[in-house]
Design brief:
By secondary structure, the chain is an alpha+beta fold. It contains 15 helices and 13 strands. Helix 3 packs antiparallel against helix 4 and helix 8 runs parallel beside helix 10.
C-alpha cells in the first residue's frame, strides 16, 4: 500500500476529530430565558458543553443577570466576557483587527476557532457593562465602558469604511450620567452625536434643544428649534423618570451551504446568515398617576447592526470557505487517484466518496452568536413635578407592570431598567423613595441628581 493510502485512515480520523462544527444546543436555554426561567437558562448557557466560547458564556450569563436585576452578577459575567477577548480588543484598538481575519483563513472550518464575538457584540458587551455600572451608581465605570464601546465601534467602522447606525444606547447612557453630575456641556455633545448618527433622534433632538437653551448656545439653538421644535417647558421643581430597556430577542445565525459534485469530489462552501425574530412587543409605555405618559423610542437596532456587520465580513468568510473547499477537493482527488491506481476503480470511487463525506462534514459555517441580546435598545425620559407618583410600565403589545408609588425630590432622576421577552415584561426601579413597600424592598438609590431646568409645571417628555 502506498504512503498516501496508509495515511488515509489517519487523515480521516484527524479531520473528523478536529471538526468542531457548531451544533446549536442553545434553543432550549433561550426558550427558558424567554419564559422567565432564568436559573435554568443561566445554568445551561454557562455550560461549556452547550457554549464552547468563554466570551459567549460571559455575555449570555450577564444578559440573564441584567434582566433578573442581579447587577453584581451581571457585571462579573460581562467582565469575564471582556477578559476572554482582551487581547483581540487591544489589537483592534491598534488597528490590527484585519490581521486576525487573515491569520485564521486556513483553519479546517470556522467552528474550530475560539469564538471571540462579532465586532458589534464586543461593542455591546461594554454598553451592557455601562448599564450595570449605572444600576450600581458607579458613574466613573459608565464613562470607562462607554468610551471603550465607542473606540471599538470606530475601529469597526474604519475597518469596513462605513458608518453603522450604532452606539446610540451608549451615548444615551453617557449623556444621562453627565446630566446627573451637572456636566451639561458633555451631555450636549453625546446627544449631538446621536443626532449626527441618526440614532434615537426623537429623544436626542428634544434633549439638544433643551440643553442648547440651558447652555445659552444662541448660535446653535435656532437650527435645533427649526428641526426639533422649541425647548420644552419643564416644571419649576422638575424631577425626571428615565426608561432604558431592551425589546424582544435579537437575530440568530443559520448556515447557508452550496454543494457541487465534480469528478474530483465534492466542492462545498458554507456561510452564516442572520435571521431576525419577530417581536411581540414594540416599545415601552410609562404612565404616571394614570395620566401623563411616555412612549419609549428606539435608540439602537441590534438587528440592523448585526446584519450589516456580518454582511461586511461576508467577503472574508466566503473567500476562506472557498479556499478551504478547494484545498479539500484537491486532497480528495489526489488520494482517490492514488487508491484507484493501486487498488482498482471501485476502491478509488470509495475513497472519493469518503473524501466528499469528510468535506461535507467539515466545511461548515460558524453559527455561534449572542442569543439573549434584545432586537433593539429603547429609551425615553419624562419630566414631572417633584412629589409622590404612581408608576406603571407597559410593554406595547404585552404585559403591564405596576412599579409602585415613589417620592421624587426636586432634581432627582429615577431610572426604570426594563426588558420585554415575548409578551412578558421585566422591570427594575433605580432611585426614588418607594412608599408602598417595606424599606427592605425599596428601590436602590439613584446615583446622583441633576438640577432641574427652569420652566412651568407640566409633564414633559424627551421621547
Amino acid at each position: 500500500m502506498s504512503a498516501r493510502l496508509r495515511l488515509l485512515p489517519t487523515l480521516l480520523a484527524f479531520l473528523c476529530a478536529s471538526c468542531v462544527s457548531f451544533v446549536d444546543h442553545t434553543p432550549a436555554a433561550v426558550a427558558d430565558f424567554e419564559a422567565g426561567r432564568f436559573d435554568e437558562a443561566r445554568t445551561a448557557l454557562s455550560n461549556p458543553k452547550v457554549i464552547d466560547s468563554p466570551f459567549l458564556r460571559g455575555a449570555e450569563r450577564g444578559t440573564i443577570d441584567l434582566v433578573d436585576g442581579r447587577w453584581d452578577d451581571a457585571q462579573a459575567s460581562f467582565d469575564a466576557a471582556v477578559e476572554a477577548v482582551r487581547e483581540l480588543e487591544e489589537r483592534a484598538v491598534l488597528g490590527l483587527a484585519e490581521l486576525g481575519e487573515q491569520a485564521s483563513s486556513l483553519v479546517l472550518n470556522e467552528g474550530v476557532k475560539e469564538y471571540q464575538g462579532e465586532g458589534y457584540e464586543r461593542v455591546l458587551v461594554h454598553t451592557s457593562l455601562a448599564l450595570t455600572y449605572l444600576a450600581r451608581g458607579n458613574l466613573d465605570g459608565v464613562y470607562v465602558e462607554v468610551r471603550r464601546a465607542n473606540k471599538l465601534l470606530e475601529t469597526e467602522e474604519g475597518l469596513y469604511s462605513k458608518k453603522y447606525a450604532a452606539g446610540g444606547f451608549g451615548h444615551l447612557i453617557s449623556a444621562l450620567c453627565y446630566e446627573l453630575q451637572g456636566r451639561y456641556d458633555d451631555a450636549y455633545i453625546d446627544y449631538k452625536r446621536m443626532v449626527e448618527k441618526g440614532v434615537g433622534t426623537e429623544l436626542a433632538g428634544k434633549a439638544v434643544t433643551r440643553l442648547a437653551a440651558r447652555l445659552r448656545r444662541e448660535d446653535e439653538l435656532p437650527q435645533w428649534t427649526e428641526k426639533f421644535g422649541p425647548p420644552p417647558e419643564l416644571p419649576a421643581d422638575a424631577a425626571s423618570i428615565v426608561v432604558l430597556g431592551g425589546v424582544g430577542l435579537g437575530p440568530y445565525k443559520i448556515e447557508e451551504t452550496t454543494q457541487l459534485m465534480t469528478g474530483a469530489g465534492l466542492a462545498q462552501f458554507s456561510i452564516p446568515r442572520f435571521v431576525s425574530r419577530p417581536a411581540l412587543t414594540t416599545a415601552f409605555d410609562l404612565s404616571v398617576d394614570g395620566g401623563a405618559s411616555l412612549r419609549s423610542t428606539e435608540v439602537e437596532s441590534i438587528d440592523t447592526v448585526a446584519i450589516e456587520n456580518l454582511s461586511d465580513r461576508m467577503a472574508w468568510l466566503a473567500g476562506r470557505s472557498l479556499l478551504r473547499g478547494a484545498m479539500k477537493l484537491v486532497a480528495t482527488h489526489a488520494i482517490s487517484e492514488s487508491v484507484r491506481r493501486e487498488h482498482g476503480e471501485a476502491a478509488g470511487v470509495a475513497a472519493l466518496l469518503v473524501g466528499s463525506l469528510v468535506t461535507a462534514a467539515t466545511e461548515r459555517a460558524d453559527t455561534r452568536c449572542w442569543r439573549t441580546l434584545p432586537s433593539a435598545w429603547h429609551g425615553g425620559r419624562l419630566w414631572v413635578s417633584a412629589g409622590e407618583h404612581m408608576l406603571t410600565l407597559s410593554a406595547v403589545g404585552g404585559e403591564t407592570v405596576e412599579l409602585g408609588r415613589f417620592q421624587l425630590q426636586p432634581g432627582e432622576t429615577l431610572f426604570v431598567i426594563a426588558r420585554s421577552l415575548g409578551s412578558r415584561l421585566y422591570a427594575h426601579v433605580i432611585g426614588g423613595a418607594r412608599l408602598d413597600a417595606p424599606p427592605a424592598a425599596a428601590s436602590e438609590p439613584t446615583p446622583t441628581s441633576a438640577e432641574p431646568s427652569d420652566g412651568t409645571p407640566a409633564p414633559t417628555t424627551d421621547s
